[in-house]
Design brief:
The protein is mostly helical. The chain has one domain. Keywords: Membrane, Transmembrane, Transmembrane helix. This is Histidine kinase.
C-alpha cells in the first residue's frame, strides 16, 4: 500500500517520473532548445539591424545626390560614419553566428548606442515615438538575451565554459 508512487509529493502533488534521469534530460533538452532559440533571435535581430543600417547608407547617398545639403563636408562625414557603423554591425552579426566571444560585447555596445538613439527619438521638437519604439524593443531584447547566463556561456571560449574539464 505504501509504495513510493503513493507517497505525498512536495512539488504540488504532481507524480514523479519513475525514471528521474529521463525528466532531467527532458528539462535539459527544453533548456537547450530555449538557448538555441535565444541565440537565433539574437542573430536574426543583428542581421536585421545590419540591413537597416545599410538601407540608411543608401538613403543618405540618394539624399546627397538628389538634394543640396547645407554642408557637403558634413553630409559626406555622416555617410562615412554610417558606412563604418554598417560594416561594424555586419561584422558583429556574422561573428554572432560563429559565437565568437567578442561578438557578444560588440553587440551589447551596439544595442546601447541604439538605446541612446531611441531615447532621443522619444523627445525633442521632432520626436518620433514610432521610431523610438522600433529601436528600443530590439535593443532591450538583444541585451536581455545576451545577458542571460546560458547565452553568455554559449559565447564564451570553450576552455572558459563551466562544463570544460
Amino acid at each position: 500500500m505504501n509504495r513510493r508512487d503513493d507517497a505525498p509529493h512536495d512539488d504540488g502533488g504532481a507524480p514523479r517520473s519513475p525514471h528521474p534521469e529521463a525528466s532531467e534530460s527532458t528539462n535539459a533538452g527544453a533548456r537547450l532548445g530555449g538557448v538555441r532559440t535565444a541565440l537565433a533571435v539574437v542573430s536574426v535581430l543583428l542581421f536585421f539591424e545590419a540591413a537597416i543600417v545599410s538601407a540608411l547608407v543608401v538613403w543618405l547617398v540618394v539624399d546627397l545626390v538628389s538634394l543640396e545639403p547645407s554642408s557637403y563636408v558634413t553630409a559626406i562625414a555622416l555617410i562615412a560614419l554610417v558606412v563604418i557603423g554598417a560594416i561594424w554591425v555586419w561584422a558583429v552579426a556574422i561573428a554572432s553566428l560563429r559565437r565568437d566571444p567578442w561578438a557578444r560585447a560588440a553587440a551589447i555596445v551596439w544595442q546601447i548606442l541604439q538605446l541612446s538613439v531611441a531615447v532621443g527619438a522619444f523627445q525633442g521638437l521632432f520626436a518620433r515615438a514610432d521610431v523610438g519604439w522600433a529601436l528600443l524593443v530590439p535593443a532591450v531584447t538583444v541585451i536581455g538575451l545576451l545577458l542571460w547566463t546560458p547565452v553568455r556561456v554559449a559565447y564564451s571560449r570553450p576552455e572558459d565554459r563551466p562544463d570544460a574539464a
